[in-house]
């Protein structure tokens, strides 16, 4: 049953009958409660109801992803905060990332499962605004946390001894700045600069990217600049120099080993360097997954403000799903690749660890790498 009180497959079958049959004018908007209609753009009135099977699949997938994300990110927060060697300034950023992803799916998954059951937004206009704001807020929080993680890796790996160490106070200040910045941007649509409206599948809410007024267009353009392109360019800049520093260090080590007629100069300090370089790869993988998750949503928003004709309700499902699935990746990446995290996980939840955790004594998220020092040692 739907919120309109009619069998969902019957409504969908009627719409498939075409304009010549009974119910041929039924649209995806017809199931929307009357109090929500002022938020619906006229663009969506041209589309028939979606096959209820899509709603079932979407509800199942988002429910499963929600459970994985909430449990996974909850475990990351618990393990990092309850394990003393992991309570480092750098790892506070990791905890903030996990908390942002946890809150993302905690606020996104249950409402979407409910709406997929009713096949439309059934929670009212105010909840639609809150849903859109929370999704934007925690998405923004995740990407800027990843940006600061990349900058911290740049500071540790590229600058070496000349770098100013990250302290707990500085890390907490950065986290506060991240959330203040994100709140300002994501509360703006609730104050009149753009707005949060139901998306084409009518089971989720997001920014209004179909309104052609420049007040609304300008928000999408400026927001994407500060919350997508600026962080992305900062991350690319950071990792470009990280890769260069690592490559230069490895080249120096090989040349010195050749001069000394030995196979390798790998020492305990070099092992620490390998741990740090490994974390750089982990963070780069996480950010790449974020890029693939949020780029389709960005493309949809840009298509909306410039050429909305190609956007269908079905396409908005995949954009929304890809974006929310980002909150699932991070605990998996850290659980597989973070040595100290795996060791702590094995102690607290041994049944969840597959394979050996190794004997890594350097926290890949907090140890300080100094390429210059290693080069001097090699010399």
TrEMBL record:
One of its GO terms (biological process) is phototransduction. The keyword Transmembrane applies. It comes from the Eukaryota. The chain crosses the membrane at residues 53-81, 93-110, 130-151, 171-193, 220-243, 279-299. InterPro entries: GPCR_opsins (IPR050125), GPCR_Rhodpsn (IPR000276), GPCR_Rhodpsn_7TM (IPR017452), Opsin (IPR001760), Opsin_lateye (IPR001391), Retinal_BS (IPR027430). It is found in: Membrane. This is Long wavelength sensitive opsin. It comes from Anthrenus lepidus.
